Amino acid sequence: MLEQLLIFTRGGLILWTCKELGNALKGSPIDTLIRSCLLEERSGAASYNYDAPGAAYTLKWTFHNELGLVFVAVYQRILHLLYVDELLAMAKREFSEIYDPKRMNYNDFDETFRQLRKEAEARAEELKKSKHVGKPVIDGKKQGQVKKGGFEGGNKKKSEANDGGDGDTGKSYKLETGHSNGNHVNIEGSRAVVANSKENASSNVGAFDVSKLQKLRSKGGKKTDTVVNKGSNVHPKKKITKKNRVWDDSPQESKLDFTDPLEENGNENIEVVGTDHGESMMDKEEIISSDSEDESEEVGKESKPDTKKKGWFSSMFQSIAGKANLEKSDLEPALKALKDRLMTKNVAEEIAEKLCESVAASLEGKKQASFTRISSKVQAAMEEALVRILTPRRSIDILRDVHAAKEQRKPYVVVFVGVNGVGKSTNLAKVAYWLLQHEISVMMAACDTFRSGAVEQLRTHARRLQIPIFEKGYEKDPAIVAKEAIQEAARNGSDVVLVDTAGRMQDNEPLMRALSKLVYLNNPDLVLFVGEALVGNDAVDQLSKFNQKLADLSTSPNPRLIDGILLTKFDTIDDKVGAALSMVYISGAPVMFVGCGQSYTDLKKLNVKSIVKTLLK
Amino acid sequence: MEGMEQWRNEAKQWLQQGIEYAHQIPPTQLYAAAAVLLLTTLFFLIIRLFKRTKSSTIVLTGLTGSGKTVLFYQLRDGSSHQGTVTSMEPNEGTFILHSESSKKGKIKPVHLVDVPGHSRLRPKLDEFLPQAAGIVFVVDALEFLPNLRGVSEYLYDILTKASVVKRKVPVLICCNKADKVTAHSKEFIRKQLEKEIDKLRVSRSGISEADVANEFTLGIPGEAFSFSHCSNKVTIAESSGLTGEISQVEQFIREHVRP
């Protein structure tokens, strides 16, 4: 049954809790809900899952935007209560009638709520009874499809749990069974999952790999009850020796490794160019244009130049008169226009969709003040939401972290990950240059042992910057190279180790596993995802898959996820800055650096206000 | 129609009479009258300006989970009702403090603002700081050491904001949850904060961040930082939101919001 139902104000005061359901909630689900969901602009989602030691809850909520109230219902995840949404809506209606800002005590609501609950439960019972009649028929048909259904459910649930990054790492444990035949729970489970996975319909379904399915089917069902969620790495790692690819009839090259025999002090061969390129742009203050305030007003005026004459007249009339309450249908045209504008600025489509839903949820039911247009109100709400998302959740002062690590006499390890060709090595050198300017000793670790020329590239950078580089050549295990690099850094007293890895596509299973092993083995202080600002909808896929794979394939209970984002090639996009928003929204990680050019000084910090201004222009 | 004509004629006559009268007054008198009018309006405006600079806003801020909302409701109603959750919006109110409501005489109501401490909602603080007459920085004395870095960074940011330094806004560091057994003492907290801010000075000196500009530096370079180096007054006190031990906070508020 329902664990708890709370009513609280947006300012944080609890107005009413149900005293009948007196169970104390384990952990702090409400606070976590607020921090990881409502403040992250995911309030358009259907529900939120919370896991604490000893409990697994699902939370559902609804807002009363006019009075500034939030209604939250908590129940055990195993029970799929169907009446919660209805109950919340009814409770909202009843409570808003007796609400008074001066009143703090609402004990009379207990009685009302008891009745509402009985009604809702009764209605749910009826619905269930009517469903039961049709069930045996479906049972027979679904026998053959149970396995697949169970799998789909399992995969979806797994990826649903990891959607959104670090907030949501709840690992579901009951739907991974692929072999229970015609299990009642299984069918209900998969149906419920299908019902619950509205919010993640997009990218995660694509991860379903048919070959995985066949492999697992052949392995036999050994995971019916155990708490396992890593169905993907069942098969043992087979060590495949790499066979050289033969392109044509040319004789095989015996030697593929063309690196020069190591000359640690081969500096005399190449002239060392003095590397003082001036101050890195990280330290320069951004000159924000002072006419930003005027611009925002102008935008409000000219935002709807092409509405029909009649529409303009009626909207003017409404704005003066002030309609009673904002309905979703009123907000829709304004939201759609805003969504299109965001998408023209290269924000991923599903992110724009989710954002608009969240803004709609926060504006619905609000009283429209006179002399304001709906579009300006929506714009203001969207601006606030964007500032909130882009403001980092925790401090991104890397220098402070480095100093803290220095005190503990350990090197501060940063790992750069990303897909192919986004600019990891280039930006690694820029970050090294910036750190050097602040009198921090840096060491580079060349763990890109795959791409030809990667080690030489880093070596050149190291020579120009005059910092040590740890390399082991090509075709070595990157995780081991990184480990040795960190030990070397601890030995020679470097403060920071920057680890370069090979670019890899997010769908490539063996490479993602290797990356996860590197992260798990070395436990870096910062996992920096390098993404280019030119990317479009793929940003969502990249980040979510990287996070998911890092979580799944790691063998520790607290997997390391992406801690920060480095946005590159920012100078190539004029004002299509949406990739920043997509990446931050989907992963929850802040943007720590912005690369805006190809020389050492082209590294900036993200200016939240200017990005928001550009997005809404 | 005839009534209208009559009315219009009468109005015209009155107008003509008024103009004749005005022409009769010698010009110097007219100028004198206008000057007096101007002076009195200026006088009133200046008085109002002076009155406005004495604001009565006290801002409650601190990290999330330190107890600001509980303190707010204690100050206002004398109890924290049924508990609180993480605030998503600021709590504002203009009222007489609960403990003073029994006093007789004219007491100026205090405008108290409780700003959410969640890092995503930090920009809201900037809306209220320009009108603040005093800042109460609430610190969780129980979970102090794990959050030490976050607390000191936030405190450093506040102490180096232009609106705080220029107007010399007094700050009270309030060590909340002092009723718990394992809560730290205010001396310990003060020493730890001074040490951390000293370190922050070194790492933040000269760097300007794009989002929050540390426009001023704290303290005297070369010497270990101490709160006495700040140009505005920084004091430290203990309190307990849950039990209602908020006398030191109330004292601070009364000091800086003069009736």
TrEMBL record, chain A:
Subcellular location: Endoplasmic reticulum membrane
Keywords associated with the record: Endoplasmic reticulum, GTP-binding, Membrane, Nucleotide-binding, Receptor
CDD domains on file: SR_alpha_SRX, SRalpha_C
Keyword Electron transport: no
Alphabetized Pfam families for the sequence: SRP-alpha_N, SRP54, SRP54_N
Source organism superkingdom: Eukaryota
Biased composition (Basic and acidic residues): 168-177, 298-308
Main localization category: endoplasmic reticulum
Ranges for domain SRP54-type proteins GTP-binding: 590-603
Region of interest (Disordered), ranges: 126-185, 219-239, 287-308
Topology versus the membrane: Peripheral membrane protein
SMART domains: AAA, SRP54, SRP54_N
Family, per entry: Belongs to the GTP-binding SRP family.
UniProt name for this protein: SRP54-type proteins GTP-binding domain-containing protein
Organism: Hevea brasiliensis
Organism placement in taxonomy: Eukaryota, Viridiplantae, Streptophyta, Embryophyta, Tracheophyta
From TrEMBL, chain B:
Keywords: Endoplasmic reticulum, GTP-binding, Membrane, Nucleotide-binding, Receptor, Transmembrane, Transmembrane helix
Gene3D superfamilies linked to this entry: P-loop containing nucleotide triphosphate hydrolases
InterPro entries from the UniProt entry: P-loop_NTPase (IPR027417), SRP_receptor_beta_su (IPR019009)
Membrane-spanning ranges: 30-50
Topology within the bilayer: Single-pass membrane protein
Localization, UniProt: Endoplasmic reticulum membrane
PANTHER family the UniProt entry points to: SIGNAL RECOGNITION PARTICLE RECEPTOR SUBUNIT BETA (PTHR11485:SF34), TRANSFERRIN (PTHR11485)
Family per record: Belongs to the SRP receptor beta subunit family.
Stated name of the protein: Signal recognition particle receptor subunit beta
